[in-house]
Amino acid sequence: MRQWFQSVFEGAEREVWLRFFAAMLGLLAAFTAALFSTAFARQGNVLFTGITASAALLMSGWVGLTTVPYLAKRVALSRVREALDYEVTKEGLIYMGLVLVIGIAALNTGNNLLFIIVSAMLAAIVISGVVSATIVRRMEMEVVLPEHVFANTPVLGRVTVRNKSSWWPSFSVSVVPPKVKPAKAKWVLHHAVFRWPPKAPPEKQWIKVPDLYLSRVVIPAVRADILKEPVYFPYVPSGTASSAEVELVFPQRGRFVQDGFGITTRFPFSFLKRTRRVASAREMVVYPAVEATDELFHVLPMITGEFESFVAGRGYDLYRIREYLPEDSARHVDWKATAKTGALKVREFTREDERKLRIVFDNPGPGTVESESYEKYVALAASLGWHFAGENTELSFAADEALTSQDIYGFLGYLALTEPRTGESVLDKLEATDDYNVIFTSRLRGSIPTSLWNCSYFIFFE
Questions:
Q1: Residue 125 sits in the same domain as residue 53
Q2: Spatial distance between the Cα atoms of 329 and 337, rounded to a whole number of angstroms
Q3: Stated pTM of the model
Q4: 97 and 108 belong to one structural domain
Q5: Number of structural domains, the chain?
Q6: Angle at the Cα of 32 from the Cα atoms of 26 and 37, rounded to 5 degrees
Q7: Whole-angstrom distance, CA of residue 190 vs CA of residue 212
Q8: What tens digit of pLDDT does each residue of 427-444 get?
Q9: Domain range for 333
Q10: Which string of DSSP letters, residue by residue, matches 219-269?
């Protein structure tokens, strides 16, 4: 038993127990002060009666504002947790302080008008909680996120809230991110069945009674990487929906997670902030930035020049005769076809239809390249892929086993999540094709297969 209590108090529930016992001590002190107040009142000591009565009210109010909401949120029943998921605002604290002051004055003076005022003020708090709970319960929300997102590039998302009520409008509603929490371990009580004899078959166990046991469970972290600021809707008419555009900017590549959202309101008096959690987890893969960097301006002309030279040597077989375009060279004009049709015609050769480029990302091992340099070359590979995807080029990609798609977005998705990893180099198993290769690698020149030198442009990790 001693070990059990020690494990509980050392676990994630320690704060709960501390708050519980602090509340019990606070209520005990408030009860003691109330008894002394009664005794002093019978003796006719007005000064000490007021002091002890005020202390009792202050201590009970402190317990009610700091401990009761915290413990209520941890109740296992979902309906009770939802009904009590609120926060007291700064305005609410000031208002509660005024209620306590007027309440103390009413107790000390016995003025019935002051008691009526205190009752009305407390009723306003109850009405605020009921109205705000009614508003958030009848609201639905939807978040639409863009499919393709690049780092450091603003994109627009859409947040929509719908008022399900057919009669009452909603006021001052916000869609908020969840509170970010780190991963933690806590003790959880599980239901089980005690069986005896323990090693006997089930049909021969003659004792079967309900049992409980504790186990330590790791609760994952709560993340809010996508929507970080509230989205405010001042007014949503009954039976309608309102939408708002949200600008999203992600500073780096990677996977971004949003563990749900919340619908909150302070209406009508801003004493309480009522929130209903919406279990709608979202995940986004942000591609590397494809900005025009100095590295891209330095490498792109050389790659383009060597690529054009490689393509130009692939042959001059006639592919088709087509209409003349402004960017076509005059030396390719087919004068015989032009004379027959009366319109300029040009010859197109097979070399113009065989612009095949393969980008190879030979992922280095951990510790081979510094993190800043690695990110620079990941962004350069993404920028080159994005550039040539917009050209008249048949593009393909090669990397380790994590690359499962051969389209540009599959390659960008691979670069968004890739990290240095150990394993066989992609250059050792690269199949020979008719493509021209742009190879990112950290290997030494002497260890690269000689078959790649005549048809590749190498970018070495520094």
A1: yes
A2: 16
A3: 0.68
A4: yes
A5: 4
A6: 125
A7: 6
A8: 888 877 778 888 888 888
A9: 317-353
A10: EPPB-B-S--S-EEEEEE-TT-EEEEEEEE--SS-EEEEE--EEEEE-TTT
